[in-house]
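Consider today's protein:

***
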Amino acid sequence: MSRKDTTEEFLNSLPELEEGKTFAFSCHPGVKCFNACCGDLHLMLTPYDVLRLRKGLGHDSKKFIHNHADVSSTSGVGFPMAKLRMLDNSKRSCPFVRDEGCSVYENRPGACRTYPLGRASQMDSEGGMIEQFFVVQEQHCRGFEEKKEWSSGEWLKDQGLEEYNEVNDRYMRIMTRARKAGIVLDEKKLNMVFLALYQVDNFVNFVKDMNVFVRLDVSEERQAAILSDEEACLAFALDWVELIVLGSSENLKPKV
């Protein structure tokens, strides 16, 4: 069975939350299981997760990755990935959970924001994303006994997921295109992609030191934004990764 067939079979097997349907859920210190889900996790950190978390903590990327992330690469294509390192205790607790709740709540990862929904996505034939939502109702969770009703759209908006999904889907599209093209990153390109996407603060310095803009068609306005705002720099980094890995990018062109 091909990867495409396997993905479609998986998506079709999910208990999809139909449009117009709602679910009851709320999580707060008054819920009996409060904080119970914040441990023993295999929580992948996307580039945008890392950017938001380390800026919220006031850490540079080197310190954050050293203290909180385990780095690996995707099978097949070799793109970098990061996973949040749990504490070495009996509960394998999240390093940011406290008795009173999440200490990084404002900048918590996208996966934490999405819960109790699950989001499955894949790229369509035109390069867009097909997304599907389903409710993840774990046995221990008492949040489903609360009365507040949500549609999937209401929940995602309330949790501030638009920016997270936009950046994360862009990375997924690049990886999917690379996989379809049979591209496998060598060590040099893997390190370059890791620098650009997971170490945006250092990538800014790379852009300056290597005079990257000299070789690219980037407006002065965008150049200024890239050098002064890390979220703008991450958007540029995704364009740059697309260009160096796939050979072309809709948003970034070499100077003629």
